User: Fold this.
Amino acid sequence: MLKIEKRQQWLVYFEMFLVSFAANALAPLITTFQDQYNLSITTSSLFPVFLSAGGILANFLGAFFISRMGVRKYNFLFLFSLALTAFLFYIASDTVLLFAAVFVLGITTGTGMAVTSTILSHLDKRLQNFGLYHAFFGLGGIVTPAIIGFILHLDMNYKLIFIFTFLLAVGTGVFLLFARFLSDHIYEKVPFLKSLSILKMRVIYLSLIILVFYAGSEIGMVLWSSNLFIDAFNFTKESSALFLSGFWLIFTSGRVFAQQIENFLKFQKTIILAVSLVFVSISILLWQGWPLAFWFAALGMAPIFPIIQKYVLQHIEKSQAGMFNGMLFGFLGIGNIILPGLMGVLGGINIYYAFLLPIVSMLVILVVFRSLMKM
Assistant:
């Protein structure tokens, strides 16, 4: 049984990489899309709105339907959505198709995160390494911008990245058709209204507030980093994409060792120090104009999400895990509309203004986290 669950664990990690591989293509291609489709920064601020709207739809429905469809069928739904995303980006000839592709990318991201986190949360506790789980998302953030930077540097068609994504989705789906280690076990069937009742739990709603502000800041910083580096620091598109890969390399390294960091510093100190590091780093980035501070922010952001998520899952019933994971990524989608979208609007005025929002978000997180620790 444990051998089968280990295979499921590595499937979860690989598919988390696929989610990230697709999702992280958007940020390094923002300026390319702006040039090709003649989009302003303000218009581009609709990207996170469409992206997150798709994610919200997928996650709230996923929290309810995973238990009825079974994880194997829902996993195939994720892979189909991933292939469709790549296809739409490849054929996008106007802004309508482009924004449709971004919306479906949001559905893909939400579906993938909901199904992988549900599978992982039902494995043996020894295999529930959420730090490594989130690290594979960071791995996609390293690989995708690096590949895009290489493609742009060679003056090749950037749509090659979407051909590769399509092949990965189809290849994984074909493999799983013949592999039998992922069963279609039906998890808890809970009425939709009853599932919403878990939001009354203090540990859940406070943690959701923290993670909404965290995720919105992370997505916003990554999404608008190219505009910051190009407009404020005179980076080229290619060097901006490669610099973003450096961010994800540090971010992923931090997530790989997130559990060890928490074991050493303990839960409360880890979160306080991590959030404080992000606050200080972004402040230095803006007021001192030191681009490397962006990488220090990555180091601070790395352990926040997996450690908070693990904390919640250890303080609720196992039967509530699937509902929580679906709702978690659904609420994150709301944050990913508001914060990155607002950053885009402010960036249309001055890109420096946009990066003030993550600083404010870190202050909010510290205040809410203090309330969480009073439980």
Summary: Residues 321-349 form the longest helix (29 residues). The radius of gyration is 19 Å. Residues 2-372 form a domain with the Growth Hormone; Chain: A; fold (CATH 1.20.1250.20). The chain is about 80% helix and 0% strand.
